[in-house]
């Protein structure tokens, strides 16, 4: 019995050392933001590792991705550092033009990302970002603002056209409750801002299930990427807007990122 207890304690300490939660109290956000970081259990002290930032969906939190995929298992299998921020339920990872205290983009670039690079052994040339639903929109939006900071970006079941969120998902309040015909919906949408990537050869990946309510907009995004000759991989496959789909799609995204990292 004593040997068993000792082994449990050792395993717990070993596992706990591979995970860390950091709480940010930011002037850019209305409340504290918790970021859950997973590092591979077996790494060299001098190693610089790739990182994948995982953004959760609307109404979720920093625990959502781990509940879907077992983030520690992925960190160990791929040898990556996984970073899971909290999107504060409905931030859409944007700088709100209507709410001065909802400036998530500024928080991300000015506070979160620099601290991750300082506190963890991250190779700055091998940072990828992806997310589901609201997080899919957020990942591509952040990538489009500063593609030089990332190796690649992805989205699974992403809300890439904010017009799909008229009247729901917290988007109207962030945008100042605009009229449904207002141009602001598209001004903040990935499907409009994807034009910023024209001429940039950095690869992106996005996917959507055929039974998803964002499916039509993701198909439209693929057509726009093709017309602009953007280096985009699109996966259209059976599935809906749920964790069963994301458990499958995140594996595809990681395999895609691995190709870029090893290239």
Automatic annotation (TrEMBL):
<dbReference type="InterPro" id="IPR029058">
    <property type="entry name" value="AB_hydrolase_fold"/>
</dbReference>
<keyword id="KW-0732">Signal</keyword>
<protein>
    <submittedName>
        <fullName>Prolyl oligopeptidase family serine peptidase</fullName>
    </submittedName>
</protein>
<dbReference type="Pfam" id="PF00756">
    <property type="entry name" value="Esterase"/>
</dbReference>
<dbReference type="InterPro" id="IPR000801">
    <property type="entry name" value="Esterase-like"/>
</dbReference>
<dbReference type="InterPro" id="IPR050583">
    <property type="entry name" value="Mycobacterial_A85_antigen"/>
</dbReference>
<feature type="signal peptide">
    <location>
        <begin position="1"/>
        <end position="18"/>
    </location>
</feature>
